[in-house]
Amino acid sequence: MKRLLLAIFIILISSPLLFAQQTGQQKMHQQMQEMQKMTQKMNDLLERTQRMNQEMNRQMKQMQDEQVNNQYRMMYRFNEQLHMALGNMKNASERCDLMMQNKEMMRDKEMQQEIERLQKHLGEMATQAEDAVQTMERLTKRMQLQKTAQLNENE
After folding, report:
1. Dihedral, CA atoms, 69, 71, 73, 78, nearest 10 degrees?
2. Cα–Cα distance between 69 and 75 in angstroms, integer?
3. What pLDDT shows up at residue 106?
4. CA 45, CA 83: separation in Å to the nearest integer?
5. Structural contact between residues 31 and 119, judged by C-beta atoms closer than 8 angstroms
6. Which helix (H) or strand (E) holds 8?
7. Residue (of 49, 38, 14) closest to 126 by Cα position
8. Which of 144, 143, 132, 149 lies closest to 89, judged by CA?
9. What is the pTM assigned to this prediction?
10. Using CA atoms, how far apart are residues 86 and 90, in angstroms rounded to an integer?
11. DSSP summary character for residue 53
């Protein structure tokens, strides 16, 4: 009878600890998945800015109008800077991911909270970067429409 009570007592005491450990592991797994998604988002944004730059470079080579060429050049240079910023953000998200994987750092609750805060800020920055890339895509499309309209006028 004592053994049964002892076994029940041990199970009751260890259940919350096991549940807390499992919940912590689930949270960590979810955070790691979020970091992977953010890194993938950064890769996507980097590819999009690279394609835009290639297209703008092609357009500048075809354009005869110096004013339009200057506009493309300004956008091209801005997009280069955006591309570099995205690369830096990707590197930062990879470093944050490494910190999250460091068990010693994540054992300290205050450190864990600060790293989670960093992750949140990086996610917000990724969303803002996505907005910036979309704006550049719209500007590029608008420039192409103006170029087409100019070519049609000249014919």
Report:
1. -170
2. 10
3. 87
4. 8
5. yes
6. helix 2-62
7. 38
8. 132
9. 0.76
10. 6
11. H
Q: How confident is the model at residue 150 (pLDDT cuts 50, 70, 90)?
A: confident
68, burial (CB in 10 Å: exposed 0-12, middle 13-18, buried 19+)? middle
Residue 137 carries which side chain, given as an amino acid letter?
Answer: E
Give residue 145's pLDDT: 87
- CA 98 to chain CA centroid, Å, is 15
Percent of the chain with pLDDT over 70: 83
Q: How many CA atoms lie within 13 A of 55 on its CB side?
A: 15
Q: What is the per-residue pLDDT for 10? A: 60
CB 137 within 8 A of CB 50: no
Give kind and range of the element (H or E) at residue 6: helix 2-62
Measured CA to CA in angstroms, residue 68 lies from 12, 47, 74, 96, 138 at distances of: 75, 25, 10, 42, 16
Separation CA 30–CA 32 (nearest Å):
5
pLDDT digits (tens, 9 = 90+) for 39-90: 899 999 999 999 999 998 988 888 778 888 898 899 999 999 999 999 999 9
Per-residue model confidence (pLDDT) at position 120: 92
